[in-house]
Amino acid sequence: MSSGREPRYEHLVIDDAVIARDDPMAVIDPIWWIANFYDSYGDLEESLKGFSWPQRLVWAVMWHDSEVCNGGHLQFFDNSTGMIWPDALEGYEAIGRPDLAAVVREAVARFSEPPSRERIVRQEQVERDEPEFDDLDRRFYDGEGGLRDALIAFIKKQPEAFYFDGVVKKP
């Protein structure tokens, strides 16, 4: 049964004016709508092929932050977004937040093997290993201050890596 709503297509431009607003979410808005992490990792890679690596890193950091702040690392790894953990880890390092990268690294180390990029396998790993993340969640929350500023500084160091001019489909 259809909701009766048709998706709308929106032309988005990410340029110096958008970057100057100091809003990382506005800068990665296109990737937010285009990225497909609901299916396989291969589908995610295919959906992201038009984006720069810095765009992908900022997007991964923002998803990790969103998931952890909403339901902790258990939610992050259990949800489809968990496939981007290596990118989030690299992203925290790239933006100059090794403290938050260390939290991700320690969360990964609580699995008997690195979490899979494929959700079903990763969910089996969560069930098998029963990793406990409460202490890491608290460490992340305590260290999260300044994350937005670090993202903005990273974006402003290489604005051309974040430019976008295209159409995205929004629900």
* Poorly predicted regions: none
Mean pLDDT: 95
Name the overall outline: globular
Q: What structural class do the secondary elements suggest?
A: mainly alpha
What level of helicity do the residues show? Answer: 55-70%
Tell how many strands the DSSP assignment holds: 2
Strand arrangement across the biggest beta sheet: 1-2
SSE series: EHHHHHHHHHHE
Instruction: Note the beta-strand portion.
Output: 5-15%
Number of helices: 10
End-to-end CA span:
16 Å
Largest sheet: 2 strands, antiparallel
Describe this structure in words.
By secondary structure, the chain is mainly alpha-helical. It is 60% helix and 8% strand. It has a two-stranded antiparallel sheet with strand order 1-2. The longest helix is centred in the middle third of the chain and has 26 residues, at 53-78. It is globular and about 45 Å long. It starts with 7 loop residues before the first strand and ends with a strand. The relative contact order is 0.20.
SSE order and pairing:
Blueprint (H helix, E strand, L loop, with lengths): L7 E7 L1 H4 L4 H4 L1 H6 L6 H8 L4 H26 L6 H10 L3 H12 L9 H11 L4 H10 L3 H11 L6 E7 L1
Antiparallel strand pairs: 1-2
Helix pairs in contact: 5-6, 5-9, 6-7, 7-9
